[in-house]
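Batch manifest line 600
LIGAND: magnesium ion
JOB: complex structure
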Amino acid sequence: MGSFSRSSAIERDVVKAEPLRSFLRLLRPHRGRLSLATCAFLIKDSPAWVLPPLTAAIIDLVVQRGALHTLWMYAGFTILLLALNYPFHMIFVRGSSRATRSLAVDVRNALTERMQRLSIGFHNRHSASIVQSKVVRDVENLELMMQQALPTLLSTTFTLIGAVVITAVAVPAFVGVFVVTVPVAALLVRWIRSRAILQNETFRHEVEKFSTGIGEMAAMIPLTRGHGLESVAARRVAGQAESVSIAGQQLDALNGRFGAFSWVSYQVLGVACLVGAAAASITQVIPITPGQVVLLSTYFTILTGGIVNLLNVAPVMTRGLESMRSIAEIMEEPDIEVNENRTSVDTVAGGIELRNVNFSFPDGQPALLDISLVIGVGETIALVGPSGSGKSTLLNLVLGFVRPGSGQVLLDGIDMNTLDMRSVRSHVSVVPQESILFEGSIRDNVAYGLSGVSDARILDALRGANALDVLDRAGQDGYSSAAAVNRGLDTIVGDRGSGLSGGQRQRLAIARALVRDPRILILDEPTSALDAASEDKVTDALKTLFRDRTTLIAAHRLSTIRSADRIAFLDGGRIVELGSHDELMALGERYAHIVGQQNR
Ligand SMILES: Nc1ncnc2c1ncn2[C@@H]1O[C@H](COP(=O)(O)OP(=O)(O)OP(=O)(O)O)[C@@H](O)[C@H]1O
Ligand SMILES: [Mg+2]
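JOB STATUS: finished
ARTIFACT:
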C-alpha cells in the first residue's frame, strides 16, 4: 500500500514540461535526510576554504617571528577540522545515498505500476526494449545526477560563499578582482576543453553503433550460421571495432592536447594572480601581508576549479533531466485501461455476446465489421479465416484489451464496459499465439501468478495438457518416484522457452491455462505446423481444456477446429459463415473449401 501511494504521488509529481521541478518534487519526501546531509557536507568540506586563511596566518606568524604557542593553536585547530572530515563525510554519504537509492526504487516501482495499467495498445506500439531502457537507464541517469551533481553543487556554492566572505573580511579590496577574474578564468578553461566535446560525441556514437552491431550479430547468429556467413558477420564486426579504435585514438590525442593546454593556461592564470597579489603587497598599493598573498592565490585556484567542475557536471545534469522527461512520458501517457469505479465481478458463468460490434485500429483501417455472435455458457467456438481476417482482434475484444468502437460486448448479459476487467480476467485463461515462458522452473511457469498451488494440481494440469514428457527430460529415471517428479518440476526453462520444442511450449501454455481452471478460455492457436504425433498430443490436451468452459479459439488446424461446437468463419473483419462443422460442410462454401484443401 505504501509503495502504491508513493507511486501515484510520483505520477502526479512528474511533468514532462518541467523536468527540474519534477526532479525536485521527487526529492521532497527525502528533504529531512537531504538537509542533514547538506549540513554534514558544509562541515566536512569546510577545510577547502578555511585552510587557506589558516595557512596565511601561519605564514604571517613566521614572517613576524610570532609566538610558538600560537602556532600550536593553529595546528590543533587544523587537525581538529581535518579529523571532522571523516565522520561528517560518512553522514553525508549515508544520507544522500539513502535518498538517491530509495528515489530510484520509488521511480522504478512507479514506472512498473504505470506500465501494468497502460493499455495493451500502448504496449503494442512501444517496443519492450524502450520500456526496459526507461526503467533501467533513465532511472540510473537520475541516480548519477544526484551522485555527481549534488556534491559539486554544494562544494562550489559553499566554497564560493566562504572564500568571498573571508576575502571580504581579510582583504576587502580584492573581492572586486575575484568577481571579475574568476568567472573569466573558468570560462576560458572551459572553452578550451569544450573543443574536445565534439570528438567525445563522435566517439560515443561509434561505441553505440558498435554495441548495436554486436546485438544484431548475436540475434542473427542462427541465420548467419545457417547460411554459412560467419566470415561476413565477423568482418562487419571487425570493421566497426576498427572505427571505434580510430575514433578513440583521435579522442585521446585531442584530449591530451586540450588537457595540457588548459592545464598550462590554468597555471598561468594562477601565477598571474599570485604575482599580482605579490606586487600589490610589495608596492603596498593594496596593503596586504605575505600570508594574504598566499591566501588570495589559493582562493583564486580553488574558485576557478570549482566553477570548472560545475560546468563539467552540466552534461550529467542535461542527461539526467532528459531522462526525467523520458520517465514523464510514461507517467503522462493517457492510454491507460480504466477499471476504477467499475463493477467487480465475483463469479462468472461464461455467457458472451457481441452485439453489432465494430472496431478500427487508430490508423483507421476497420478490423472488425458489424460482428454479432452469441456464445453460450460452456460452448466452444472456433474462429477460422485467412490471416489478417480479425481473429486475434476479436479475441482481444473479448478480453477487453481493445474496446469496441461501436456496439457492445456483454458478459453474462452485462456490458463489459461497466466491468472491472481485472476481476473478470481472474476467471479467464489465455493461451496466446506465441507461448510465453519466462526464465524459471516448470512449476513457476505453470503456476504463474497463482499462490499456494500444490504439486499435485500442477501435475494434474501437466497430465491434462499431455505435457508430462517435459518433466521426463529432467531425470533419467523419469517421473516414477516423487523425488524425480519434484526435480522435474524444478527444471529451469529459459526466458524464451529455450530447451523446449514448439509443441512442448504449447502444451506447457495449455497446462498453465488448465491449472487456473477458468470459466472462459481464450486461445490463439499458433500457425506453426506441428508434426502429426505432436499435433495429436496437443489436440488431446485441448479437448481436456475445452471441457466445461466457454472457449474462443482462433484455430488453424483442422483437428482443433473439429473439436469445437460451432465455427465462425471470418473474412475481412466480418463473420461470413457460422455453424457446426457438419452444417458448414453441408453449406459447401468457404469453410468446406478450406477443409477440402487441408484434407488433400
Ligand atoms: N496493432 C495494430 N494496429 C493496426 N492494425 C492492426 C494491428 N493489429 C492487427 N491489425 C490489423 O487488423 C487486421 C486483423 O488482424 P488480426 O491480428 O486480428 O488477424 P488474425 O485473423 O488474427 O490473423 P492471423 O491468422 O495471421 O493471426 C489485420 O488487417 C491487421 O493488419
Ligand atoms: Mg492472429
